[in-house]
Amino acid sequence: MLIGITGTPGTGKTSVTKLFEKDPFYQVIHLNELIKEEKLYSEVDTERDCVVADMDLVYNRVLELQDSFYPVTIVDSHLSHHIADIVIVLRTSPVKLKERLEKRKYSVDKVRENLEAEALDIILAEAVDWCEKVFELDTTAGAVEGTFKDIERIVKGLRNGDTEELEKEFR
Ligand code: ADP
Ligand code: MN
Fold first, then answer.
1. Which of 45, 59, 88, 92 could be joined to 97 by an S-S link, Cβ 3.0–4.6 Å?
2. Cα(116) to centroid of ligand 1, in Å?
3. pLDDT by residue (tens digit) across 22-37?
4. Domain total for the chain?
């Protein structure tokens, strides 16, 4: 089972997926690191200080890396809804997200761009368009551990075929 953890930068994807690394049930792929390490991009956008990923290369590489030894492979990235059919979209309220992004070395423009994207539900809308199953988790208030538990519940629920119940609770 391939699950994408997606969401605007700063919503908590890397923090929460790191917690799954210790669990032998889960393989975790931190996709943004992989894209940079293996140069899976077609362009470097110096103005916006980011790379433009080559999604064909990225998709094929994830399939190659996916190890059937693990029942579940988790992909951590704001691009993961481009490659997984099941995704969890992390969400954060504007005030909190601004706080988190300003702690990074992000430029004023980059902070604004990401706040806008979150306010306009850009990633959620893309996920709903492209993916088979989409769940939402709000990381504004609770601790990382709480989000970890919620993701675990979604995964276990999916494996039991409780999709309908999950969709009521996490949408
Ligand atoms: P992303 O990978 O989505 O860009 P990060 O995990 O790098 O986000 O950063 C998110 C920040 O928000 C971290 O400092 C993390 O500790 C904090 N945070 C607070 N609450 C949560 C939560 N419930 N889930 C995930 N991260 C959280
Ligand atoms: Mn991250």
1. 92
2. 18
3. 999 999 999 999 999 9
4. 1
